[in-house]
Amino acid sequence: MLNERCLMYFKKIMKQQHLSIDESMIPYYGGHGAKQFIRGKPIRFGYKTWVLATPLGYCVQFEPYQGANGRQANADEYPGIGMGGAVVVDLISELEEEEPEDCYHLTFDNLFTSLKLIDVLTSKKIGCTGTVRANRTEQCPLKSINEMKNTKRGTFDFQQAENTGVIVVRWNGNIVNAVSNAAGVNPLQSASRCSKAEKKNESRSRSPS
Asked: How far apart are CA 27 and CA 186, in angstroms?
């Protein structure tokens, strides 16, 4: 019922193109078998949920965490996307299919991202951008991590698939890998980072926007 209401008001009032997917904690300190403790989080005790939200934090859809096998049906339907990818497919299942020029653009972190998930979302005409773990780039011929570490901060390397337009980027900013079917490496922009030596923020690197 909550998901139905969230989706109804999203379509009527809050509708936006850009959405994000991440985990969220509902604080709870009592005794319950579903309560979790996650060290280092702002909310350490509570119920863990997967959330599809707008940039301002409006919840469009959510699902309680159900363990490693909670999304097994979606994982079986789309082999290779993993449990994180299955969560993404589940959360967007109620969104209406839009025209290509008005499609949604999802962002998520490397817990969810894989190239197979990007292919699934591309087939659904949904744009997406996410950081990706190096072992999920499917041997994309980027410069190696060791090579990138020897370049100046802000250097990046990328490859783009000719048939789908999906782009994979490796950026030397503590070595970040990202993949997108909707964004490219240009235009470039300056990135601000903290300098321990100067004890202040500096704009000293160039990064893909």
From this structure: 41
- Asked whether the beta carbons of 62 and 78 are under 8 A apart, the reply is no
Other C-beta atoms lying within 10 Å of the C-beta of residue 143 = 16
Residue-wise pLDDT tens digits, 36-87: 888 888 888 999 999 999 999 999 999 998 876 655 556 678 888 888 999 9
Measure Cα distances from 77 to 72, 81, 99, 128, 181 in Å. Answer: 9, 9, 25, 20, 21
Residues 6+ apart with CB under 8 A from 85: 74, 75, 78, 112, 113, 114, 116, 117, 120
Residue identified by tokens 């490796």 is: 170
User: Which residues of the chain are under the pLDDT cut of 70?
Assistant: 68-75, 97-102, 195-200, 202-209
Residue 65: strand, helix, or coil: coil
Query: Burial of 124 by CB count in 10 Å (0-12 exposed, 13-18 middle, 19+ buried)?
Result: middle
CA–CA gap between residue 40 and residue 42 (Å, rounded): 7
Q: Please, what is the angle between helix 115-123 and helix 82-91, to 10°?
A: 20
203: phi then psi, degrees, rounded to nearest 5: -100, 100
Burial (CB count <10 Å: 0-12, 13-18, 19+), residue 111: middle
What does DSSP assign to residue 15?
-
C-alpha to C-alpha distance for 26 and 29, rounded to whole angstroms: 10
Contact 61, 28 (CB under 8 A): no
